[in-house]
Amino acid sequence: MTEIQEVSVLIGGRAGDGINSAGALVAQLLNHLGYRIYLDFDYPSLIRGGHNFAIIRGSEHEVGTCREKLDFILALNQETVDRHRDQVHAGTAIIFNADLARSDGQGISIKNILTSEKAPEIMGNSAIIGGFAKAAGIEWVIVETVFRRHIPKGMDLNLSVARRAYDQLTVVRRIEPCNNPPLPLLNGNEAIGLGLVRGGLEAYVSYPMTPSSGLLHFLAGENEKLGIMVVHPENEIAVILMALGFAYGGKRAAVGTSGGGFCLMTEGLSLAGMAEIPLVLVVSQRTGPSTGLPTYTGQSELQFVLHAGQGEYPRLVVAPGDAQEALFWSAIAMDIAWKFQVPAFILPDKTLSEGTYSVDTGGITVPVTKAAPFWDKKPPYRRYADTPSGVSPLAFPGAKDAVVKVNSYAHDASGYTTEEAGMVTLMTDKRLRKDEELITGMNGYPQVNVHGSAEAPVAILCWGSTKGVCSEAGVKLGLRVVQPVVIAPFPVTPLKEALAETKTIICVEENATAQLAALARQHGIIPDAKVLRYDGRPFTYESLCARLKEVIP
Questions:
Q1: 324/360 Cα distance (integer angstroms)
Q2: What confidence score (pLDDT) does residue 494 get?
Q3: Is residue 292 left, alpha or beta, with left meaning phi > 0 and alpha meaning psi from -120 to 50?
Q4: pTM for the full model?
Q5: How many CA atoms lie within 13 A of 533 on its CB side?
Q6: Residue 543: is it exposed, middle or buried by C-beta count within 10 angstroms (0-12/13-18/19+)?
Q7: Each residue's pLDDT tens digit, 424-454
Q8: What's the Rg (C-alpha) of the chain?
Q9: Phi and psi (nearest 5°) for 324?
Q10: Which of 139, 246, 339, 526 could form a disulfide with 203 if both were Cys (CB 3.0 to 4.6 A apart)?
């Protein structure tokens, strides 16, 4: 019997078997043992059928990526056993549904348990989790605590099913507790939602599109508790126009989508730029072009988001690296959008949006002001008054002595349409001055993070969800890891400082064209090598280490 302080567990089955929920329960079991959690959920774009699996990694220390080798495989069907044979090692324990699979390890007749308990088929995952808990030496009291806290319906019956399986198996690979308190487990979408609320969110508008759909579902489920309005219009064009209407009326609004949905929003985005209406846009990336791989990951929307919409106007783009950063930066994005009256983007991907992380919510201090440059109520009110900062005073419909006229046409300070050359130039210059104000305003935030060996001469340059895997690989290989979180306005000075005295820069991205590398090059930062992956799957720790060794001088 082997004692371990890091563990990787895979649970797999068909779509419809509740693999996502089962993976979340396994994560909570490890969480209650003091492990820091990362969970990745892999599934094809099928309503039923196909192979679904979740990999849950627990460690004494913070983690943000999966390992390739597994300590436990929980197989609800034969396909799970067959597909993951190459991920076993000498100590891997396999717990399988003996009715549908054959393997070395310990089998459970889930059908017999469900029949005895008169339980529905979906509760088969509770049986496999009960068997896992026993095989891993997890005390029953922890199983019962987790089930009672995290199963909203049929909790007693689920516990009975799990207990039957628990009593049938023996301990084969004990997971010893870590000396950490449990932390909240949040996926990236939940963290973004909570961050938006911290930033003052009042209305969330979205049309479902993987991988952002979970944000819509989370906020809709918690809207009364959070005190917000959640709306699901008929399409993405309606989404952005409705959100702009909320913001015009004084409500802090956000929208959520993925690349294909954002394509439909770009004209509305330009309206926000011209009309100077503050708005937060969550664009969660997946593999493209077009439909691409709807349920897989990628980092191919960076250049699109930076340049979307016709015309020239400032914008904020932030790309958090994990759920902790997502909570922080989503609040900041809302705050900045209103402070400077610009569109603000939050740019996660499927890995971050649907991945689950341990998050120290109590340790996150978000410097949100919820301030905006409101009108001083001295008439006449000019919606686009020319100011040194380029930021005009805000008033909303219904305000006494104020006609709040916003306009998608070129306009003067009062919002009236004009084609007069001098006024067009004046208003353009006013809007673009906000870009300089944004650069100054972002100086108080941690725009660039450094991980690994901060003085190492070889640096990994990465962004977004690759933070986790790059950080671990950097520690293993003795590399500096530099992660810009703010992408626009591009943090040239902080990034150059973070890369100071490096001799080699290796850019790691999950796209085919090295989009961050191209952006860095425009600002005089020249990567020496690129490590790219673009098959829809995230880097694993082992695969990235191997690729990096090929290019490290």
A1: 7
A2: 97
A3: left
A4: 0.96
A5: 20
A6: middle
A7: 999 999 999 999 999 999 998 999 999 999 9
A8: 25
A9: -60, -50
A10: 246
